[in-house]
Amino acid sequence: MTVESEPVAGRYRLIREVGRGGMGAVWLAHDELLGRDVALKRLGHFEGVQSRVRAEREAQLAARLSHPNVVTVFDLAEDDDTRWLVMEYVEGTTLSRLAALRDGLPLDEAAAIIRQAAEALRVAHAAGIVHRDVKPSNLIVALDGTTKLTDFGIARGDADDTLTATGILTGSPAYLAPEVASGTTATPASDMWSLGGTLFQAVTGRTPYELGDNVVAGLVRIVHDDPPRLPAGSGPLGTVLAATMVKDPASRWTAAQVCDFLDTVATAPPGASLPLPTDGPDSTQVLPETPTAARPARPARRAPAARSRLVWPVMAAVLILVLVLGGWLLSRSRSPNNEPSATSTSTSGPAKGATGTPQTSTTQAAKPTAEEMTSFLRGYLTTVTSDTRAAFAMLTPSFQQASGGYAGYDSFWKHVHQATPSGIRADPEELTVSYHVDYAGPKKKVSGGSDDVRLQLVYDGAGHYLIDGEPK
């Protein structure tokens, strides 16, 4: 399928591919009937009744949810033997990418995102839907700060027993709840464990479990090791993590409890005694005067003596996990694209709507280079004079706000026809780029103007940069 192809279902003209993952490729498209941009998720070619039923199920489940924190599904379009899920196009960045670029988010920013994610899960669970793949790359943070949950490709409804009783492991391993890693059916409580893992990554910039290449050993760790924790300085978010990443599913907070707790935190004065939801891990908590975004330690390991008592249970668990993992790998190999999951409608790079979720691995992250930083700057100045909205996505959310939002940003750059840099000096140690720029435009307001600029960048270790400010 290419952009030169005929409109999908005679209506949706493809613009460009913006995402690719194990559950299908996603395109930005234009609905020629209603005159709006949409996201089209290609569900692949049908291989029998079962695949057709699964495509219909994803559309039906997601369409049952109409909420500001859930990506809206508009249609299930059929084109020859391929079906496309037609969704709301959200211009923004995945939480996984934001957390990686900034080595973890400030506590208040992470809390706002997790509160909205919990709201999306509250609505889904109330509708009888278990998402089963809650993770940072399935949360899109839009330009206005709204967080949306997407990708219901493996979600399960109340009446889906025949589609989920296959023994195949579903979900992303690093975020799986212990009971799901052991082969049992996912429940709303399983989603809450995954939300806790998502919170951990939002604050630290790391996945809750670094599984590496040995997924089976990683799943055994999830089942038997103590869950990761945030340090005491993380304030209320440490409480949320401790209340969601609990081994016993019945002891986890529900999505509604997380929402209520974070709402109380948002309105309570510093130092106030904070009542916790019923059946929480404690009865009260005192809010700190100034929360500290300290980096949590690595997940705790059990002492050798405790491990020795688990030898036989672990061996049995390994056997179960090998069987379950085999089904999961088989399902991934049969998916349209055997690649890491990518968000359906994320803008995360120089091109408008482009998606690229950094994947945490055990390999050492590459260091920034002056050549890459210079190339990023030139690409930014080329983009900003042709597509201000795409260029705006190359700024971190905090710098977007400091720039007066998109309206303030566009009010200047829309007058600039050309921005020519010279004397570029990139400092990989400080992650700064200094340069002189000459502006030219169709209006006298910017004709012949020039400026000396110094930009502060952030880097995710995988060759991706964003602009974080203009230091003096």
From TrEMBL:
Keyword list, A-Z: ATP-binding, Kinase, Membrane, Nucleotide-binding, Serine/threonine-protein kinase, Transferase, Transmembrane, Transmembrane helix
Q: Where is the composition biased (Low complexity)?
A: 293-306, 340-358
State which Enzyme Commission number(s) the record gives: 2.7.11.1
Q: Please indicate which superkingdom the organism of origin belongs to.
A: Bacteria
Q: Which GO terms describe its molecular function?
A: ATP binding; protein serine/threonine kinase activity
Q: Cite the Protein kinase domain residue spans from the record.
A: 12-262
Q: Which SMART domains match?
A: S_TKc
Region entry Disordered: which residue ranges? 270-306, 333-370
* One Pfam family from the record: Pkinase
Residue numbers binding ATP: 41
- Transmembrane domains' residue ranges: 310-330
> Matching SUPFAM superfamilies, A to Z?
Protein kinase-like (PK-like)
Among PANTHER family, the record links this protein to: MITOGEN-ACTIVATED PROTEIN KINASE KINASE KINASE 20-RELATED (PTHR43289), SERINE_THREONINE-PROTEIN KINASE NEKL-3 (PTHR43289:SF6)
Protein's name according to its UniProt entry:
non-specific serine/threonine protein kinase
Q: Which organism is it from?
A: Nocardioides terrae
